[in-house]
Write a structure and sequence with these properties.
- It is a single chain.
- The chain has 210 residues and is mainly beta.
- A hairpin with a 5-residue loop joins β17 and β18.
- About 2% of the residues have low confidence.
């Protein structure tokens, strides 16, 4: 019995020794910040643990070629977060990454704010099948349209790869109901280049039709 306890104790001492000799592996996380295919310099990039809005555990700024690097990053789950450089961009974008025992390369793509034209915010339309228009982006090759019922966010219409900058929904809307609409833009490589900052709301009142 004493020999058994002796062997267990020896094993524990060996484990403690090995842990002390081999500290946790920290790795390098790097990548490039793009808008469409263009690298963007002077962008603040963060690694955030927990919620994406929590304070960062690492922070840096992209180089003249849009590149960023974090050194000695412990393993774990993080948000890779990049801030838009001007007001025309969405304030920040984040993607989840998992850091393991080897170096990680992960790029991130910025988005511009889409400009919605009609129906305008809080407007009243006099048709059950309204036409939606927005301002296009030069980098975009297609747009995604989304229409929801405002009260409970029931999805009414969702269409990918719209080529023009106007779309008439094929869904028959309900009179007296408020809806919310938004647009996303995709470039030739399938990357997001535009998204709606705040969905526009409108109400259908077919009785206004003349």
């Amino acid at each position: 019995m004493k020999r058994k306890y002796f062997l267990v104790g020896l094993f524990l001492i060996l484990v403690i020794f090995l842990v002390g000799c081999f500290p946790p592996v920290n790795v390098k996380v790097s990548g490039t910040v793009y808008y469409s295919t263009t690298p963007v310099p002077d962008i603040v990039v963060e690694l955030v643990s927990g919620d994406a809005t929590d304070p960062p555990v690492f922070s840096t700024t992209t180089t003249t070629t849009g590149a960023f690097t974090f050194f000695d990053v412990p393993s774990g789950n993080y948000w890779l977060k990049a801030y838009g450089p001007t007001e025309e961009y969405i304030g920040w974008r984040a993607r989840s990454i998992t850091v393991g025992s080897i170096d990680l390369i992960s790029d991130i793509y910025l988005c511009k704010k889409m400009t919605l034209l009609s129906p305008p915010q809080y407007s009243v339309v006099n048709t059950l099948s309204p036409k939606f228009c927005w301002q296009g982006l030069p980098e975009a090759v297609g747009y995604t349209f989304q229409l929801n019922k405002t009260s409970d966010w029931t999805l009414i219409d969702f269409v990918h790869n719209i080529q023009p900058t106007c779309y008439t929904t094929s869904k028959i809307l309900q009179n007296g109901v408020q809806y919310s609409w938004q647009i996303d833009a995709i470039d030739k490589n399938g990357h997001d280049v535009g998204t709606t900052h705040s969905a526009f709301q409108f109400t259908v009142n077919e009785g206004l039709k003349k």
